[in-house]
Amino acid sequence: MRGYHRTRDLAELRAANVSKGTRARIWRFLSPYRPRLLAYLLVIIATAVIGSIPPLLVRDLIDHAIQNRSLRQVDLLAAALVGVAVATTVLSLLNRWFGAVIGEGIIYDLRVDLYDHVQRMPVAFFTRTQTGALMSRLTSDVLDAQNAVGTAASVISDVMTLVATLVPMFVLSPGITGLALLVLPPFVILDRVMAGRISRLSRHQMQLNADMSSNMTERFNVSGALLVKLFGRPDAESKLFARRAAGVRDSGIRLALLSRYLFGALSLVGAVGTAAVYWLGGRDAVTGHLAVGTVVALAAYVTRLYSPLTDLASSRVDVLGAIVSFDRVFEVLDTPPSVADRPGAAPLPAPLEGQVSAQNVWFRYPAPSEVSVASLEATAETVADGLSDEPSAWVLRDVSFVAEPGTMTALVGPSGAGKTTLSSLVPRLYDAVSGSVTIDGHDVRDVTLASVSGAVGVVTQDAHLFHDTIGANLRYARPSATDAELVSACRAARIHDLIASLPEGYDTVVGERGYRLSGGEKQRLAIARVLLKDPAVVILDEATAHLDSETELLVQQALAAALAGRTSIVIAHRLSTIQAADQILVLDHGSIVARGTHTSLIAEGGLYADLYQTQYLRGGSGVLAPAPLAG
Fold it and tell me: Are 7 and 206 in contact (CB under 8 A)?
C-alpha cells in the first residue's frame, strides 16, 4: 500500500516544477553515503534473486523428488528451502540496517544544516516567515526528503523483483505469463482512479489534524489559556474542539474505508489473475503439457508479480514528492543571511573601552525578496506572485552621534521615530545601508558577529526566558559561569534573595517564556544575565516599561549595577532614566532633531519639551507622574 497515503495532492506533484540541478544536488548531498548505497543496492538485488528461488525448489520437490520417491532429494530440497529462508532473513536485516543508517543519516544532516543556517538568518527573516512553515521544513519536509532513499530502494526492489519473477515464469510457460500480465491494466486503472481520491482525502485529513493541533497550541500556551479563562469561554472552546476532532474522526473513517475498497479491489483482480493461472496451468497439466510442480511454481510467482507492478504504477508520484521535499529544504539553505561575517573579519580587539559611534547612518528595511522565502510566508498569493523587490521607506536619515565610554545616551521620540531601529544597528541585528556604526572605532560590519555579540548586552521590555531552570537561563549568557558567579550577578540584579527563597532555588523551572515569574522578576533575571555576560555596551529597550513603582525601584537599582562603568544606550520611557542620561537624542521621522541634557532640552523647547509636558505632567498641575514616555 506504499504511496496511497500521500500528504500532497497527486495533481500538485505531477505538475511540480523541480528546479534544474536538484537531482544532481541530491546526489552530491548523498556523496558521504555512496559506499553504503552501493552495498544497499547489492543487498536489494540479492534479496530479489534469492526470493525467486523457493518456487523452483517447490517445483523440483513435486515433479522430481516426490515423483521419484527420493527421500534424499526431499531432504536436500527441504534443507535448501530452510537455507533460502535464513538467507532471506539475513538479507532483510541488512536491508533494514542500510535503509535506517542512510535514511536517519540524511535526516540528521538535513536538520543540522537547516537549523544551523536558520539560526544565522537575520531578524528580518524571522519577522516575515511563519514559524509553523519553518518548523514544517525541519520536520515534515526533512522526513519526506529522507523518504527519497526508501522510495528509490522500493523502485529498485520492485524492478528487480519483477525481473527475477518474470524471467523464470517465461522460461516455465510464456503463455501463462502473458495471461498473468493481462490483469496489469486493471491494476493501473484502479491505482490512478482510487489513489487520487485517497490522496485528496488524506490531504484533507492532514489539514484537519493541523487545524486541531493549531487550536490546541494556541489554547494551551499560557497567554491563550489565560484569555479563555478571562472571557469565560471553556465550554465554547470544548465544543469547537469537539467539532474539529469529529472532522478528523469522520475523515479517518472515510479514508480507512476507501483504502480498504482499493485494497479489496486490487486483491480481487490479483485473485482473478491467480485463478486464471491455475485454470490454464491446470488444463495444461491435465493434457500433459505442464508438470504439476510447474503449475504450483507459476502460481507462486504470480503472487509476487502484482504488488511490485502496482507500486511501480504510482512510483513517479512518490519520487516527485521526495524530490520536491529536497527542493523545499534547499530553498531555505540557498537563502543567504543578509547579515554575516565578511571574508577576513577579525574579532574586536580586547580590552574594549565601549565607545559607540554612528556616522551619517541611513537605514531602511531590506526588500522581502532579500531576506525571506515566499513559500515560508502566509498566503498562496505570496508564493504565486513572489516577494517584493522594494525595500521600505527610509527609517533612519543621516543619523550621527557619539556615545563615549561609560556614559548614558537616551533615545527619545514618538512611536515610529526609529529609536529601536537605531539601537538594533549596534549589535548588528541589521546593517546600515550607508554610513557606519562603530565600537571603539571599528565598523561593526568589519568585525566578527560573535565579537560584536560579546561586546553588546541587550535588555528588552519583554525579557524572554526559556522553559528551563533559572540557572540554565542565566548560563545562556556564559555557559562556563560558576555557581558563585551566578549568585554574584543575581545579588547585583537584586534578585538573589527571591531565588534563594524558592524551594528549588536556582534549579526552579521558570515555565514557558518565564510565565511563572512576575514582570519585574523576569526583568531582574534578564539584567543578571547581562551582568553575567559582562559586555562593554548595554542597550536598554524600554526595560522598565509597565512596571509598578515598587518593582521599578528594584529594577532601577539592578540597572544601576548593570550600567556602572559601561556605555549604555537607553530607549527612554521613565523620567528618572531621562534625567540620568549624559546626552539625550530626540528622534523624529528617522532624524535626530535635538540633542542635549534633560535640562538643556527643556529650556530649548521643541519636541522633547512637548513630549515631557504630555507624558510627565498631568492635568497641568505641575505634579510629576511616572507615566511612560512614548518609546
Answer: yes
515 pLDDT tier (thresholds 50, 70, 90): low
If you write DSSP's letter for every residue of 394-461 in order, what string do you get? Answer: -SEEEEEEEE-TT-EEEEE-STTSSHHHHHHTTTTSS--SEEEEEETTEETTTB-HHHHHHHEEEEES
Provide the grid cell at 6: 500521500
Residue 28 burial (10 A CB sphere; 0-12, 13-18, 19+): exposed
Q: Which residues contact 65 (CB under 8 A, 6 or more apart)?
A: 73, 74, 77
> Of all helices (H) and strands (E), which one includes residue 614?
helix 607-616
The SS3 of residue 617 is strand
E strands along 536-606, which residues? 537-541, 567-571, 583-588, 591-596
Phi, psi of 346 (to 5 degrees): -115, 155
What is 66-100 written as a DSSP string? Answer: ITTT-HHHHHHHHHHHHHHHHHHHHHHHHHHHHHH
Residue 469 DSSP SS3: strand
Taking the C-alpha atoms of residue 401 and residue 165, their distance in angstroms, rounded to an integer, is 81
Identify the H or E element spanning 361: strand 356-363
Q: What number of other Cβ atoms are within 10 A of residue 454's Cβ?
A: 19
Rounded to whole angstroms, how far apart are CA atoms 143 and 146? 5
Before 405, cis peptide (omega within 30)? Answer: no
Taking only the tens place, the pLDDT of each residue in 49-67 is 998 999 999 999 998 888 8
What end-to-end distance do the CA atoms of the chain give, in Å?
Answer: 60
Instruction: Read off the C-alpha cell for 52.
Output: 525467486
Q: Can you give the pTM of this predicted structure?
A: 0.72
